[in-house]
Amino acid sequence: MDVISQSPGEQKPAPASSLPSRREGSRAIRVLKRSAVLYLLVLVGTGGFISGMFYGEGRDKAASPSSEQSAERPARVVNADALGEIPEDLDFNLFWDVWNEVRANYVRQPVSERDLFYGALRGMVAALDDPYSVFLEPQTANEFGKELKGTFDGIGAEIGIKQGQLQIVAPLPDSPAERAGLRPGDRILAIDGTDTTGMAVDEAVSKIRGEKGTVVTLVIYRGDGPEPFDVQITRSQIVVKSVNVKMETTPGGLNIGIIEIRQFNEETTSLFDQAVREVLGKNPAGVILNLRNNPGGYLDAAVDVAGEWVKEQVVVKEKTAQGNEVEFRSDGRARFEGLPTVVLINQGSASGAEIVAGALQDLGAATLVGMKTFGKGSVQDFQGLPDGSALKLTIAEWLTPKGRSINQQGIDPDLAIDLIEEDYNADRDPQLEAAFTLFDARTVAPLPGAPRATSTVE
């Protein structure tokens, strides 16, 4: 996931290098957000997991130091008005006391004031104890923008923190991570010899990513394995083609269109439009939407995709800390409306993928097959700052059309099918096979009166 809100008044745009711009021709959602860039990336791929639904924008909030400098120490408060009310038991002089002490007496001189400054900002956000709220230095913010465009250098795996443990959310298809055998749910115990216990996502991202041709070593623990093992991965340029389409025939002879969405990036809406036209041109009996290992992406792209099944319906809601609720409605052509549909999901389906899956499930437009999804249901505001750095801050929770919160819970499929070790080794896909079986049995939503599958298959 990613939605950009705009504050009243004149705003200074973020540097182009740090904040990706969306194409012109914004639609109803963008109007709701005062023509802000809509994206919702839950994970990104140079080994990063930058999750959630984001609002991003540049805001001119840089404060100017006071011209009145003390002979003993710098001005205590950069901008008193910006601080608002401060509890009486908090003394901001302590910050400057520590700042001066470190600058003057730390054993290894000189001390980088820029590092101290950015470190303080990182620490302030880290104190929220929220893995999805981070302060990004200019280089990291710039790399984040590149990732949203679908091309970057790295290993091609999304990572996230779940139950306090750094883990692989999803390796991208045909990526170095996938070729090295990484799977969703693999826990990362160390990166190039550094223990990941307590490591923040952005720190892990900076250690895993790097120039193509270089090698990173991960210590991996897999739930069904006896002990951790090392995986050496050579970084490469990753190009994410967000949409792939093909036609297949079920054992019962039905012609089924299969559309895979790997990530909701800048190209997804146009590529998905092409895929819809291609599938409908083949007179399909049904559609399979493959959202497995999809980490999310632009919110408006996710809403566009859902809009091919439901017209003028609520696709997702967001609920803020103040209790306000905003609805995002589809305004697509609903060309797949009424067509039997299966959505394939797994533990690597997150954020934007969960928005689409949850909406189609709530609205009875599709049957979900596979495994419980990742469970990323929070909303981040992504603000580009004047120096090229950025703040990603959790500001809301998103809900399905029926008001379900999936955060840390995920979405349960209607038909649960696991992929086990033997399936990986034999290149079998029991989830796809189960979808074909449902089509042949005519038990796929939204057939009138058709029962929703609820059984579990091991």
Automatic annotation (TrEMBL):
Residues 133-223 form the PDZ domain. SMART domains: PDZ (SM00228), TSPc (SM00245). The keyword Hydrolase applies. GO terms for biological process: proteolysis; signal transduction. CDD domains: cpPDZ_CPP-like, Peptidase_S41_CPP. Pfam families: CtpB_N-like (PF22694), PDZ_6 (PF17820), Peptidase_S41 (PF03572). The chain crosses the membrane at residues 36-56. One of its GO terms (molecular function) is endopeptidase activity. Keywords: Hydrolase, Membrane, Protease, Serine protease, Transmembrane, Transmembrane helix. GO terms for cellular component: outer membrane-bounded periplasmic space. InterPro entries: ClpP/crotonase-like_dom_sf, CtpA/B_N, PDZ, PDZ_6, PDZ_sf, Peptidase_S41A, Tail-specific_protease. The keyword Membrane applies. Residues 1-22 are annotated as: Disordered. Belongs to the peptidase S41A family. This is PDZ domain-containing protein.
